[in-house]
Amino acid sequence: MIRCLINLVLIFITINEALAVKVCNSSVINNGQSRIGIFISPIVSELPIHEIEIYWNNMKPYEKIVLLDTSRLDSPIVLYNVSSNGPSGFERTGVQAKFVPSSHLSFTQRCTGYSVALLTATSDLKEVNCLKTQPTWMKERQNILGPRRISEIFLPGTHDSASYAEDDTGNFITNNAVTQDTDILGQLIHGVRFLDIRVGHYPLSSEIWWTNHGPLYRSVPLKTVIDQVKQFLNNTEEIVIMDFHEFPVGFNDIAIHRKLVSYLEDKFQDYFLANSHGWFATLNDIWSSGKRLIIGYRHTRIVQERDSVWPCVQHQWGNVRNVKDLYRHLNQIESSDSDSRVRPRAAMAELTANVIDVLYNRLGSIRDMAHRVNANVTNWYSSIWQYSANIVAVDFVRGTGIVEAAIKANENRHFHCRY
Q1: CA distance 416 to 297
Q2: Is residue 351 within 8 Å of 373, Cβ to Cβ?
Q3: Do residues 195 and 183 touch, judged by C-beta distance below 8 A?
């Protein structure tokens, strides 16, 4: 009887901890802090080069932003400047950024040659930022993030993460399939911690597991993705979620799912965290385990059978076709009572074309659609939704400031929220 009472009390405590509501100081939610940064446009200008864009938030009248080439710190070069034409916005500069492949990036934070400076109306320096990598941002903030669960922090993610092309010239298929312009390792080094993976099964191919975007586009072998995730985990202490969310080709039998999970278990045997705590685990629990890879899997029976995979993250799709409707969708999910959730959720912050749109090219390519929304998504999540966001998955992550928005939001939550 006593043991039963103790168990009931423990269950009660666990439930109440899970349902604890985050309360933030409303006076600092939109505190007018200015933010400036650099985007790498998803629009291809000259392969593999992309245009630099400047973005800003909460900029005051008469202030000016200057884009600098800081590859030589002793003699920075002014490349472009723009005066404020509104408190928030972005501007194309015409400056072409040199592409840096992931093999040339390091596992320590680095500025990659370009900076922006915010000057007051009297030309005093107010703020400076650079185009930087963020390979270790989570571990650096373990004191802030460690006590929290995944569902309680802001994680930057990518949509259809493995549908990338670094040298895509564009055709009907790739224009409607490619969602990223850097490989998995590059995404992780730039700060992404949530990977949306879709897998196809090709038993007659030399590599039977491939990443897909829908049934028509086969991107790269799954082994390529696995090797790059392992390389990142071997060189950092970061936590990564790989969410296996769709299986568009060759999964007509549960035996194929079992075969894929066995493959993942073999390749990630020293990396994956078993689903013993489930999503109740804090980040400190994960770090203490020595295993920092969470494999989400969208198949209830498989999750029940194998402790190597977790229930997948809930994807919150809007299936919208313009910026206004995307705002409505995101505002609805970010305004809902999400603080009581234990299972993480991913706001899918991109436009979705329907079949007619694709056939008649009514919305342009995925690159075009990302270019229309990414600055807006950055500003929204830097300000009005910074305290509610969980995982935010975007197309062409380098064309957003979502990583910096997540880092700053997590710091603000630590100082201005109580759980």
Answers
A1: 34
A2: yes
A3: no
pLDDT in tens, 249-301: 999 999 999 999 999 999 999 999 999 878 999 999 999 999 999 999 999 99
Residue owning tokens 């829908």: 214
Contact 110, 87 (CB under 8 A): no
Helix ranges (H only) for 126-253 are 137-140, 142-145, 172-175, 184-189, 222-235
Residue where the block lists tokens 């864009």 = 53
The predicted-structure confidence for 143-189, as pLDDT tens digits, reads as follows 999 999 999 999 999 999 999 998 777 789 999 999 999 999 999 99
CB 153 within 8 A of CB 170: no
The residue behind tokens 């009390």 is 9
109: number of CA atoms within 13 Å, CB side? 12
Tell me how far apart the alpha carbons of residues 213 and 2 are, in angstroms, rounded to a whole number.
Answer: 55
Report the distance separating Cα 149 and Cα 160, nearest Å: 24
Q: Alpha-carbon distance 409 to 392, whole Å?
A: 12
> Is the separation of the CB atoms in 40 and 180 below 8 Å?
no
Q: Where are the alpha helices (DSSP H) in 158-253?
A: 172-175, 184-189, 222-235
Q: Residue 172: CB partners within 8 Å, gap ≥ 6?
A: none
Q: 3-state class of 418 per DSSP?
A: strand
Q: What is the pTM of this model?
A: 0.93
Nearest alpha-carbon partner for 350 in 317, 328, 379:
317
Please give the DSSP secondary-structure letter assigned to residue 164.
B
pLDDT confidence of 351, banded at 50, 70, 90? very high
Instruction: Encode burial over 69-91: b for 16+ CB neighbours within 10 A, e otherwise.
Output: ebeeeeeeeebbebebeeebbbb
Closest CA to 62 of 81, 82, 84, 80: 84
**Angstrom distances, CA of residue 247 to CA of 254, 270, 298:** 11, 25, 9
